[in-house]
Structure formats: structure tokens, C-alpha cells
Design brief:
It is a single chain. The chain is mainly alpha-helical. Among the domains are: 30 residues, no CATH class; 220 residues, Photosynthetic Reaction Center, subunit C, domain 2 (Orthogonal Bundle). The chain contains nine helices and six strands; from the N terminus they run αββααααααααββββ.
Length: 366
């Protein structure tokens, strides 16, 4: 009987050791995010983190373009990138192709018979070119107007696309109460109630709490972090006791609402039906579109510093924006649209955007 017990005991220990062998008990690193004893920390598995970083492929920057040569700019229907040299324009176009459509796939956005055309030979609009033009404006807008969120890391087309025409995380209208509408036209996510019963002023409810919880979980998954990365573990609603990441995330939410409202949703009339959602709306972005599981997109790879056409600021990381003192081509017929980095002006036109089964107005594309 004693020997049987010893065998059983030994077997249990062996099973326990085998189970532990499948666990990586070492190589962990904890980063303290708040006061000691509050469980506000981010624990990172070093080997897992290293594998995720290694899995990200950062394109090698193209060789810098030569200094611009004074003279007229030979622009023909260049509506956005008309403040850089011809060499820098060509360099930037090659980068765009590699980042979004694949090396050498210029025809994804262009009529190869006439690269300046916005239409195909038969007269049909090249929707990919029209969308790309707007996305370039959006890229500049992010880098120029949201340093509180992108800091000196910035973004490029590759930040979201990663070599594919469609980035992940795009969403469409599903139902009126879809929590992703927080990134477009919904109110704030706070559900702290000061009264027992709901009323016209107190909108907090169980349903609102569920909606907010779903939103917060999606943000945590998008960044690959836990709740305490942005919140105080003892009082989630407190801004005074929250880590600075919460302010950064708040600016990210403001940025996402701005981008969806100003740039993405109004493209409904540009996209073909096959690119629209079941309710006829254009694709929109969320946190996961850029972050894709990393607390910093591309783990803070600073690609934009090598592409001044996308800076959207007077300077970047101490490097001055290249001065282009060239005479505009007199034959240019298309005037440049309002700069993407300027403060938003009052919209005088609207375009219909389908929201939750009804048609509402959204700012038109400038």
C-alpha cells in the first residue's frame, strides 16, 4: 500500500513538472505604471515581445532625393504633393506603391497611358487614386495636427497598410448601438452615475456600461495591454490619478473621430459598391487599424522621418522641412485644395453618409 502511494505521489509530481515545463516562468519584465501596491503594472514576456518585434518588417528607406533644381515645376494635376521637388515626388510615389499596392504596381492608382489622369481610358474614375489622394492629406493631417498622440514617431501609409491595399480593423455600420460608432458620432464613454434612477440628464445604464466595456476591451486588444495601462486600478474614472497614457489615448480617440468624420466616411460617394458596407457606408478606422496589437504602432519605428512629403509640420525631429523655392508651372490648371494641416474650416457643403439605416450629413471632402 505504501509503495502504491509513493508511485501515485511520484506520478503526480512528474505530471506537475511536465505541466510546468510548458510554461515560460522566466524572462518576464514588469513596468510600473502607477503607485506601488496598486497592481498598476505592465508585465511583458521578453521572448514573446522580441518575437513580435522581429515579426514586423520595416521597409528599408529609399535613398534620399538630390537637392531640388530651381525652375518651373512641371505639375499636371498634382493636387497635394506640390510643395516638394520632382525627385522627392517620384521617390514618395515609389514608397507609396511599395507600402500599399506592391512593388512596381503603379497601375493600382494610375492610368499608365497618362499618369496625371484621374480616369481610365474609357472615362471611368480611378477611385483608388482619388482615395489615395485623400489619404495623403489625412497622413499629413495626423503628423501635423496630432503630436499629442503620434509625438515624434509619426505615421506613414505603411503604419496601417503594411504592404496591403486594405489595412486591418476597418469597420462598417452594423446596428444603431454599435460601440465602434464611438470613433465617429457617439458621445463619450463615461458611465459614472450620480443618481440611483436614470433620467434625461443621467444617461448611465446597464446597456451603456456593456457598450463602454466592449469599447474598452477592443482598445486593450488593439494595443496588446491591460486596463491599467491607461486607468488607475482603484478609481477608473479618475483622470488625476491615471497614467499619462490615458491622455495620449484620449487624443487618439479625438484623432480617430476627426479622421473618420473628415476623411473616411465622406469617401462613400467615391468608393464602388463592392468597397462599401452592407448599409452602404464607407470603411472607417479604429485603434487596431494602426496599432495591430502593439502598444505603439510598428513598436515606434520612426519611418516618417525619412519621408518629408508626409511630415505635415515645419520640421521633424530637428530636421528642417526642405525649402522648395521653385516657380509654379504656368500651365497648371488644377488649383491645390486647402492644406491638410490647416485648422478645419466651417463646412459649407455636406455629403450624405448612411448611418445606422438613416441618411445624415457629414462634412464634405475639401
Amino acid at each position: 500500500m505504501l509503495s502504491v502511494r509513493r508511485v501515485r505521489s511520484g506520478t503526480s509530481v512528474a505530471i506537475a513538472l511536465l505541466a510546468l515545463a510548458g510554461c515560460d516562468l522566466g524572462g518576464k519584465q514588469s513596468v510600473q505604471l502607477g503607485h506601488r501596491g496598486t497592481a498598476m503594472e505592465l508585465t511583458v514576456d521578453k521572448s514573446d515581445h522580441a518575437a513580435k518585434v522581429a515579426a514586423i518588417s520595416i521597409p528599408t528607406p529609399l535613398p534620399p532625393s538630390p537637392p531640388p533644381t530651381p525652375g518651373p515645376l512641371p505639375w499636371k494635376n498634382v493636387q497635394v504633393l506640390n510643395d516638394i521637388s520632382v525627385a522627392e515626388l517620384n521617390r514618395t510615389m515609389i514608397a507609396f506603391t511599395n507600402w500599399v499596392a506592391g512593388t512596381g504596381n503603379c497601375q493600382y492608382c494610375h492610368n499608365l497611358r497618362d499618369l496625371s489622369a484621374d480616369t481610365l481610358d474609357g472615362g471611368a474614375p480611378i477611385y483608388t487614386k482619388l482615395v489615395a489622394r485623400r489619404m495623403i492629406q489625412m497622413n499629413r493631417h495626423i503628423n501635423g495636427q496630432y503630436p499629442q498622440h503620434v509625438a515624434n514617431t509619426g505615421v506613414t501609409c505603411y503604419t496601417c497598410h503594411r504592404g496591403k491595399p486594405l489595412p486591418p480593423g476597418l469597420w462598417f455600420y452594423g446596428k444603431e448601438t454599435d460601440y465602434l460608432r464611438h470613433y465617429l458620432d457617439r458621445d463619450g464613454a463615461r458611465v459614472v452615475t450620480q443618481t440611483v434612477e436614470p433620467n434625461a440628464v443621467n444617461r448611465s445604464s446597464v446597456k451603456q456600461t456593456e457598450w463602454t466595456y466592449a469599447l474598452m476591451i477592443s482598445q486593450s486588444n488593439s494595443l496588446g495591454v491591460g486596463c491599467v495601462y491607461c486607468h488607475n486600478s482603484r478609481q477608473f474614472s479618475s483622470w488625476d490619478q491615471a497614467p499619462p497614457q490615458r491622455v495620449t489615448a484620449y487624443h487618439g480617440i479625438l484623432m480617430m473621430r476627426d479622421l473618420n468624420t473628415r476623411y473616411l466616411a465622406p469617401l462613400q460617394s467615391v468608393f464602388p459598391q463592392v468597397r462599401l458596407g452592407p448599409m452602404g457606408d464607407a470603411p472607417k478606422a479604429q485603434c487596431s487599424t494602426c496599432h495591430q496589437g502593439a502598444y505603439k504602432p510598428l513598436y515606434a519605428a520612426r519611418m516618417v522621418k525619412d519621408y518629408p512629403a508626409l511630415w505635415g509640420r515645419a520640421e521633424w525631429d530637428g530636421t528642417p522641412f526642405p525649402a522648395i523655392n521653385l516657380t509654379p508651372a504656368p500651365a497648371a490648371t488644377d488649383s491645390a485644395p486647402p492644406a491638410a494641416t490647416s485648422a478645419p474650416a466651417a463646412a459649407t457643403q455636406t455629403s450624405a453618409v448612411r448611418m445606422g439605416g438613416t441618411l445624415r450629413s457629414a462634412p464634405a471632402s475639401p
